[in-house]
Amino acid sequence: MQLIVRFSGWLALLGVSLVTLLSFYGLIGFSDQGPDWQLFSDSYFYSILSFSIQQAFLSALFSVLLAWPVARAIYYQPNLPGVKAFLSLCLLCFVMPTLVLITGLVALLGGNGLVTPAFELLLGEGWDIYGLGGILLAHTYLNMPFAIRIFYQQLNAIPDSSWQLASQLKLTPWQRFRIVEWSSLSGQALTLFGFIFVLCFNSFAIVLALGGGPQSTTLEVAIYQALKYDFNIPEALMLAWAQLLIAGGFFMLVSRLGKANWLSVDTASRLWTPNAKGYRGRMMQLTYLVAWVCLVLPMVALLVGVTDTDQSLKLAELLVPTVTSLGLGLFSATLGVVMAWVMLNPARELNRRGATRQQLVVEWIASHGLVAPAMVVSVGLFIFLLQHIDIDRWGMPVVALLNTFVVIPFAIQKLKPRLLQFDAQYYDLCRSLKVSGFALWKIQWPFVRPVFLTTFALLFVLAIGDVAIFSIFGNQSWQTLPWLIYGYAGSYRIAEASIASLLLLGICSLILWGFEKAQMEQKNV
Amino acid sequence: MFEVRKLEIERDGKTLKYDFKLKTGHVLAIQGLSGVGKSTLLSAVAGFVNSISGQILWEGQTLNGLSIDKRPVSYLFQQNNLFEHLSVMTNMTLGFGERPVNSDLLDQITDAAHELQVSDQLQKMPGALSGGQRQRIAIIRTMLRPEPLVLLDEPFAELDPQTRLLATGWVRKVAKKYKKTVLMVTHQSEDVEQVADSVLMLKQS
Predict the structure, then answer these.
(1) Where does the ABC transporter domain lie (chain B) (predicted)?
(2) Which of A300, A393, B51, B76 has its CA 20 to 30 A from that of B20?
(3) Which domains does chain B have, with CATH numbers?
């Protein structure tokens, strides 16, 4: 049994490596010329590169800077109403299918948007959601809530004894911030910044939908355009290399510099922590209120978009895409969780042996899908498979498998801390009790079950929202809900896009809510 | 004068009662069985625990209702007295107000560290120190802070007999020199003999 577990772990690692290797083989092997290195001397490349970095840098900066005060507000004002719901909303925003957000933002801030007049009053007549402003807005909306959750969890991890000591030593608010809060959050902030930078650098649907023209194009979208419209493989290959090296290099750099717990579930119990009062307290309450309004507004705009039309959408049109999306999500989430768990077994074994370097390599291989952009992998694999299979016939299974490949890193990040915690706490005990195989699994499962459930829900929702992979491999007879929304939005049928977006948002909310509820019930048993 | 007047604290379903006086500049050893409320009393004086009735008075002024940072108290916790991510020297200089650390204070710290045999540890991080060394560092800071009322929760528990003798002697010397009023929780009768002027024996109420 132990041998099977170990073997399957290495096999799974080989599997995910093969996906990337084959996709690059496809890109390299297609053209004898290889990448079009001449692009290096083309100003077009540098303008794309500079815009990609600029938008990712600003998106990450805004997300982190805006999240900090909100996280502080809910931490220092623990009695604020609806904090639990707010944190759930934050999770929903982070995993919200991008097309839903885009539709919401266009309904809110587009040409005839709900609050566009207010924005124009504030920023002048020049406001346009299409371009850098819209991209930054959408990226911040998706990632700031994620940063809020991370900062809040990190603040909760500050031990009571540190606050008591700070109070006892009569540290000033500035000293408390510098010695207690900043020390706890700064490492996290850097990693978080890097993580969001990579997510935004690799962002596809938002830039495609809100970019608004060649002056606002990123590497990811340029690869798509090079392949889909120009079928210029050397150019796509060169852009793909640039994308992988920059995103991968940057992520490795910040991973070495900082430390992240990501979405870890455990938070320390709070018996004695400072509570902001007076003017500071009121400012925090206001910050919290503003955050609520900002996060809810695009969803409200969807509702208004639906009622603001006389066109009607046949619900039957939504049925097949909905079932297809659910099927894809279910498949990717199930396989993704199993693959992540299996791939973490070699990493855990290396960790127990103290082989830290090898452990890091294994973890990097397991989660390298995060920095190997979906577009790059899709394009490479598309070219490779084109020569071997009938893509029209086998497109959907490939979409399902690639979706799994893309969501695996999220599962790795979420499951790893809990599994390593189990090893640290109970591995020696299990060994001394001579427990192994299924008996060990029975002990382990109740410990990790809540994290497995939330990971499953997270993967489900992430996989449902895919647009990038479907744009390469999908076909009209198996349309997914996000692709349907993209089609509506692309032809300015905003009301239909709003209805489909609301449906997708409702499904995502139900999945997250259902699993969160199941998790709570298990905790209370 | 320090006075605890008919103080009642609710703790784990029990009501703990305290009533005593202590002259300014005196050292009081607090003893009693585990769970009798020794540490709870110190926490209440420092402001971490609220009372249900009674008063805590310092020089005739009530401390009840004062926030932690307004109380004239320097407190040595049983554990977690040092910030692990700051150097020992930085830890030492915390708790002396907003002013920049002056040379007098640095001299005082260095002399005390030398006397308690931890002068070689000042530039290290707390994680590199033994339990006894950490405890002596925390004792020095707690005693040298300007607050007149000092609370020590089992200050010598981590020390070996020889260092314990050294530390108890130093604490008494500093307490008398700076006229500190000290409440010290301890289980050891030697600590009482070495440091205290009087003993308060707490019993289950």
Answers:
(1) 4-205
(2) B76
(3) 2-201 (3.40.50.300)
